[in-house]
Every structure is written in structure tokens, then in C-alpha cells.
Amino acid sequence: MININSPVEQLHFELFEQKKIQVFLKRDDLIHPFISGNKWRKLKYTLQDAVQKNKTHLVSFGGAYSNHLNALACAAATFGFKATAFVRGEEISNQMLALNKLWGMELIFVDRTAYKNKLELFEKHFSNDEKAYFIDEGGAGPFGAKGCEEIVTELTETYDKIFCAVGTATTLQGIAQAIKNNGLQTKAEGICVLKGAEEIDAHLKENGLVDYYKIHHQFHEGGYAKSNPELFDFIKLFASKTGILLDQVYTAKMMKAVFTLAHQDYFEPNSKILCVHTGGLLGLLGVLK
Questions:
Q1: Is residue 191 part of a domain?
Q2: Which domain holds residue 80?
Q3: Closest of 72, 58, 73, 71 to residue 129, by C-alpha
Q4: Cα 191–chain centre separation
Q5: What is the number of other CB atoms lying within 10 angstroms of the CB of residue 43?
Q6: Residue 1 in domain
Q7: Prediction pTM value
């Protein structure tokens, strides 16, 4: 298995000094060049389960620019699995899908209506393949959340708040669960990158985590995979000051939100805040010119 290489770095910005807060970034983007960030964390125990069940064919789902599918394709090649992906929407070609093919992943394009029922797609195409193993979109599920708990358990210091971007909320769930399990006085705070996705909160509440997390729904920048010139200005500023790249779908929205919250005096003076860089940098290939 891949060894975690995820250092924590302090971010030095005048704003944080003015507000008397310390902000750190957990560099999960450095875990692996392609199986990076929360993508590896969400796959770790999923792949172990596949091995234990003697499954050799990984089947998953994603959009045409899915970082999850890139990570899965590379992981499958690395650990000796066959991989197939159902790709949402009409058949297209792009850099991300080309990488998937290089790693040997088979792509099946399906219309958006059929894509909504993933289990039905899996059964239709692979019910006769006893080696096939279903992996939900984005690596969501209990194994994914279990892997994300290690974001917290491998820390050597404690923080007042831990921020991450929220899509399926698997990463936030894992962080909140680890905070609960370890009795920490820390709050998991998610920046939702989807518009109108308040129902995500219900899933975490059902898991008994209501006291351990908070989701901010006002920083989605227009919705999932939506961006704007201001967001790219922030990405450029952050990169020029730190040397660290952020992707426009997840981490840039999360980090920009932390800056906005700092401006709004959301954080108590002397707070220690950890932000999780969840990788996904290949997504920049679709927008950089």
C-alpha cells in the first residue's frame, strides 16, 4: 500500500496575523502524484475490502473530469486490478479521460438519466462477473469515511477547527467521526461546493455527529464545478504567495472561504485552524490555457 506523506505547513498571510490566528494546511495533495488527497484515503479500505472478497475488477462512476476516476485508474494499475468506469454524459475526449485510458481503464459513457441509478447500471453490465466490485461515485461510503478518519488520527497537534471541502461529505464525516472517537475539542467545518445541497447535513446527523461538525453553504461560487474570475484570481494569488496549487472545484473554494471568514472575524483570536488540501489538481487541466 501507499505510505502517507502528508505534512502540515503553516500559511503566512498578513490577514491571519492581523486577526491573531494561526492557519495550517495539511498537504494531502502530496500523498501521491495521482492517487492523492482524499481520493487515496477513500480508496484505501475500499481496495482492502475488494482484496479480502477476492474481487479483481473495480467498477465505479464519475464525470468526464473526475479526479476520483483518475485516482482509481492509477490505483487499479498500481495494485493489479482491472478497472471500468461509467462516465456521465455524452462521449467526449479530454486530458483526464486520456489518462484513465493510459492506465488501462475501460470507459462506458451513459446518459444522465441512466447514470442516476448506479446499482442498476452495475447489475446490468456486470451481474455475471463474479470478480466485479462496486465502488460508489467519489469513493463515498463507510470505507471511504473510515480512511478519512486518519486525517485526524495521524495529526501530532490539536486544532480548534478543521476545514475541508464538501461534495459527498465523506471526508467531513470521517473527520467528525475521528473527533468524536478521540474526544477532541475540535470542530469539523465543511465548505459545501454544491449549490442547494442542504440535505447533506441530514446524512451526518443520522450518524450521530451533529455536535462535531458544521457545513457552510454560502461559498459554492455558483455551484458544483462552477467558477468565476474572482476564484481564479484567488488561486493565482495563493499560488504566487505559497507555491501551492489549489483546484477550482474543491480546495480553492474551501481556502477562499477561510479567508472570507477570517475577514468577517469568524475565528476567535489565538485560534489554530487546519485546512485539508484534498488534492484533485488534475482538474486544472480542463481550465488552464
A1: yes
A2: 38-139
A3: 58
A4: 11
A5: 27
A6: no
A7: 0.94
